[in-house]
Predict the 3D structure of the following.
Amino acid sequence: MDDAEQPRRLSPRRRFIPRFAAAASLLVAAGLFIGARPQTYEGEETFAIQNVETGKNIRPKGGRSFEGNSVVVYNLHKWGCLTWRYVPAADGSVLLANVYSKKMLGVSGQTTPGATLAQYARSSSSVSWDIEEHADGSFLIRLHGTQLYVTATSGEINSAVVLAPPNGSNLQNWRLIKQKPWI
């Protein structure tokens, strides 16, 4: 056999990577891979929540899914971490569920003016929200049972989203951007 006919030998690392990739693909397809996220959202209305004043959208900081991660504003992308869905509550209010993290929009600490928003696993004590629509299609998001509204603090990327009393500012007005995330 001359050199052209010799079978090509792969290093142990190169043999491992294709096998790992194939195995990981099967695990993801079966939904068993740690951190696997569904890629389709058939039958669900999913959307970005965009601030009217800043044009920025709410998401967990860094797109991370850990418990208590703060919620901030960010540029619009078709990412799961920027995508939300309504979960109806028994009392007519709604929970807001992040498609990527599977966590609910909540409040970090006390429900007082200036409290920052964060994400938490769904439980019997999950925070619910009332949606107050305006004629132009924009809306306010009010913490159920209070007079505190979801408020962007600025248009800078990763700036906090807080609770505040009504102030007439567009930093408290939001709109839905329909989207189906690609990740």
